[in-house]
């Protein structure tokens, strides 16, 4: 029988089962964790057949070594694969601030957006603090903007000169990533890697994302280069001669 408010396709039951597995995993492998958060596709109810369970752990006594403040590890438990990101409070702050400085605060997103399965009472204040950081968005300095445009200018010229199909493919892939990052940062949005980069680009503007991705997927590199040039101009233009790195 489906619970009230649960989707008729049974996704609610699947999500609950995976959260229960995560709770048992934490109890068995990280019993001294003060905070445990399930993140990623499991928390969003978007699991695929190959999805693992992303788990953020915070605790003052997580590690045996007194000087250890962080750990990223992979575990198998009850037929599930867990990707664990474990930190002391100081370790979490260090890695979170590093991610913010790099404009890609992965652990902060996990903390703010994930599903809490263990909390010693600190989560409300933690989430309030880091939500404010996420809401503020990344700060792109003039020098970093110029450097990013310098890199795009250089790779763009290489793509236009390339004749080897493999070289064209690689240069275009690099250009897409660098250009998408510049587009996001120019609008005060956090960047990402892998599948999350095009997703965030589409959230920024489906029209601009389509203008960039359609010729790329069609391997129409001349049109793709022209679209990159458009975004480069929008961000401030080409950077080349006289730029000091």
UniProtKB/TrEMBL annotation:
<feature type="domain" description="Polymerase nucleotidyl transferase">
    <location>
        <begin position="25"/>
        <end position="70"/>
    </location>
</feature>
<dbReference type="Pfam" id="PF01909">
    <property type="entry name" value="NTP_transf_2"/>
</dbReference>
<dbReference type="InterPro" id="IPR043519">
    <property type="entry name" value="NT_sf"/>
</dbReference>
<dbReference type="InterPro" id="IPR002934">
    <property type="entry name" value="Polymerase_NTP_transf_dom"/>
</dbReference>
<protein>
    <submittedName>
        <fullName>Nucleotidyltransferase</fullName>
    </submittedName>
</protein>
């Amino acid at each position: 029988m489906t619970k009230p408010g649960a989707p008729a396709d049974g996704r609610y039951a699947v999500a609950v089962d995976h959260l229960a597995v995560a709770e048992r995993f934490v109890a068995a492998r990280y019993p001294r964790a003060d905070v445990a958060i399930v993140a990623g596709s499991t928390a969003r109810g978007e699991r695929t057949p190959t999805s693992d369970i992303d788990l953020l752990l915070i605790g003052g006594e997580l590690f045996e070594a007194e000087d250890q403040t962080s750990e990223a590890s992979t575990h198998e438990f009850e037929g599930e694969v867990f990707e664990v990101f474990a930190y002391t409070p100081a370790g979490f702050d260090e890695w979170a601030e590093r991610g913010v400085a790099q404009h890609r605060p992965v652990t902060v997103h996990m903390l703010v957006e994930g599903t809490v399965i263990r909390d010693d009472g600190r989560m409300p204040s933690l989430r309030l603090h880091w939500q404010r950081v996420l809401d503020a968005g990344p700060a792109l300095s003039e020098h970093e903007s110029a450097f990013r445009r310098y890199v795009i200018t250089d790779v763009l010229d290489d793509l236009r000169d390339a004749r080897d199909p493999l070289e064209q493919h690689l240069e275009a892939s690099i250009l897409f990533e660098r250009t998408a990052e510049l587009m996001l940062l120019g609008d005060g949005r956090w960047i990402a890697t892998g599948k999350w980069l095009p997703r965030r680009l589409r959230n920024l503007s489906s029209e601009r994302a389509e203008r960039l991705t359609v010729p790329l997927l069609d391997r129409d590199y001349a049109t793709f280069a022209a679209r990159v040039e458009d975004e480069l101009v929008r961000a401030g233009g080409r950077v080349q001669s006289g730029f000091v790195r």
